[in-house]
Amino acid sequence: MAPELIDEIHTKKEPDKGLKALKNTEGRKVVMRFAPNPNGPPTIGSSRGMIVNSEYVKMYDGKFVLRFDDTDPDQKRPMLEAYDWYVDDFKWLGVIPDEIYNASDRLPKYYEIAKELIEKGHAYVCFCDGETFKSLKDTKKPCPDRNANVSENLENWEKMLAGKFEEQEAVLRIKTDIEHKDPALRDWGAFRILKIGHPRPEIGDRFCVWPLLDFQGAVDDYLIGTTHIIRGKDLIDSGRRQKYIYDYMGWTYPELLHWGRIKIEEFGKLSTSGIKASIGKGEYTGWDDPRLPTVRAIRRRGIQPEALKKFMIDLGVGETDISISMESLYAENRKFIDPLSNRYFFVWDAVEIEIDGLNPTVAEAPFHPSNTENMRKIKVDSNKVLICNSDYTKFEKGDIVRLKDLCNIEITSVSPFNAKFIDNSLETLKKTKAKIIHWAPTDAITVKIVEPERILEGKGEEGIKNELDKVVQFERYGFCRIDSVSDDEVVAYFTHK
RNA sequence: GCUCCGGUAGUGUAGCUCGGCCAAUCAUUUAGGAUUCUCACUCCUACGACCCGGGUUCAAAUCCCGGCCGGAGCACCA
Question: Hey, what domains does chain A have and what are their CATH numbers?
Fold first, then answer.
């Protein structure tokens, strides 16, 4: 076979790395947006949209827009703090949006387009109550208001805007095809009346007519110049509805890509509103409680932005619903933090043991096994050290045990406990194949580790106090992020094994 | 009820557009082993999949039809 053919076979076998190419990107500036409702902080699920959209923009040197779709002050009422939380989590991911918009600032623009659509005869004010309209629609029958003429509709629309109607009394619909075979596309609602007021003080109760997602999103995507949209499969019909507006207005609809639902095995069904209620009841310590699937929570636990990014990019954009495990994210994260994390001894369920013949000394241990030049010093003032109870209870008479980086000892008796110092040579360790355990000095500081389901308290090296906000590895325990430090106590958040 | 998606190893993913380089990629998980003063990291090995049934074809994971399973939409939510 010709060598170039062999080469070709090899290159074709290489798997595609990263995100697949987008369609229709030639000769134009790619504009993409991420459009959350800020009714809570970003979750791991939202981070997929944050990451993939912004990565695509980076890939095509385009423009990235963060748009808060905060037009439901009622059922999914925005939280004022959440706007900043999104910006902050983006920053953590290394993304600075080129533009940021609040849909709630843009109501006049939506009204303008709505008026134009009414004038063109593509929208009407409907006075049916919800159930009436639904039964008409389900039987492909038009509602009585569908035939109103343009001036009647304009008049009623102005009355809506002026607050002349009550909530539920009127709604503006986009006229599509009342006999469309897909009931989801028949004359969908575009604006409704809400007199509750918006949480943003600059908006407050200035408006009483609010757009629904399909209208607001359609108009904004056009005004912002969005070229490509990636969103959940649940919005497939949404795209079809929005195309009616684009056709009526003579606009070109963006390229569409959808992804399926993402379920995280470790977290059950948690809704933003459900979590909010649980936090209110004190069941969680806050939005960064380590039991929650929020970006703030995994940040606090020491997950690195690079790991989350790689993880999400590797998932790609598929329409299949997927079920992922945090274990995969941990595996990704471990690769980032392992080379960077200093090693320390942390002893849980501490037991003090006395070793005959051990003299006060200063043990030296490497901060990282890859570099034995850079050593940490651990002072041992007596012949006593702390070890884990789980190691202690496994001792048998006659065992040779290595206290890592300190010395070898022999267990001469277990009940009562008695041990004697042998030496500190590595040769002895190799010859006897002693079990290696870690330890801590008797004057070690208190270390509290916040695990998802409990707080584990133990003793650790003094030097841990220098690692505030960094991720360390407690040998034979796992990785932790040092969350706070005081004189004699450190609080760490458990990252993963 | 109507409409629309999807189904490759335990999990995720590549391949499906334009059928043959696919006895199916890569990662993770699991099990062995090597290395290591950590039960971490690294390295090696192993296990493991095209939902089912037809059809088209010399040839189907890839195209067509039917079925099964899963998900979504049909809101005055996003």
Answer: 342-496 (2.40.240.10)
